[in-house]
Amino acid sequence: MPAEQSYRGYMVCRIVNYGRRERMFRILLVDDDKNTRLLLKTVLEAENYTVVTAGNGEEALEIMDQDHIDLVVLDIMMPKLDGYEFTEAIRNVDSNLPILMVSARQLPADKRKGFLVGTDDYMTKPIDEEEMLLRIRALLRRARIASEHRIEVGDVVLDYDSLTVTKGGEVQELPQKEFLLLYKLLSYPGKIFTRIQLMDEIWGTESETGWETVTVHIGRLRKRFEGWGEFEIESVRGLGYKAVKKA
User: Fold this and answer.
1) CA 171, CA 155: separation in Å to the nearest integer?
2) 121 and 100 in contact (C-beta within 8 Å)?
3) Of 14, 35, 76, 128, which one's alpha carbon is 20 to 30 angstroms from that of 180?
4) What's this model's pTM, rounded to 2 decimal places?
5) 34/85 Cα distance (integer angstroms)
6) 224-247, pLDDT tens digit by residue?
7) CB 78 within 8 A of CB 56
């Protein structure tokens, strides 16, 4: 099957199967080494993932024409269609599908190329299995946030489209900058962001507003959600801020 037809068929399959997706995540494992596929398949299935395997990029695209896939783990050096080419093909039709590259290629140039073609994460072989599982969980969580435009922290729901934070029967509609700031922090719980990073992300690099405004907005968020036990915004001395989930 020509690659262009396979890409189009893949996108149709994504749309058709989205509404009947199983709760168990489906992971496509792409590697030309049979032993690697068997090992990683065993590791992933032990974590209750449904795993589909392919030996190269072309075979992987054919699988995706027929099945919904939530995340792809793939090698780079493969026959017919390598990991770089596969990722480029997928990014032409789907910007949200999480892709984790796993490769023996360890040079910075190889990693850089992987990120430039659109991979979400990159690991080098030999694989630390526990680290791989942690990265997969993080990628799936971020993909869900991106597709659903909402974050759930215990009983608290952040709705990106309405700029609201809901808990039980209480609904708070936040000013846009406050909401975006909180949404960013809770999208990456435990991750430290500098004031400048948050400034560039929320207000834009061309903004003439000083980074001190981030401190002001953080103060407003803390006051607004004071007493809420589900999350907390912590200051990291000399660095910036991070959100901590308590629920």
Assistant:
1) 12
2) yes
3) 14
4) 0.60
5) 21
6) 999 899 999 999 988 899 999 886
7) yes
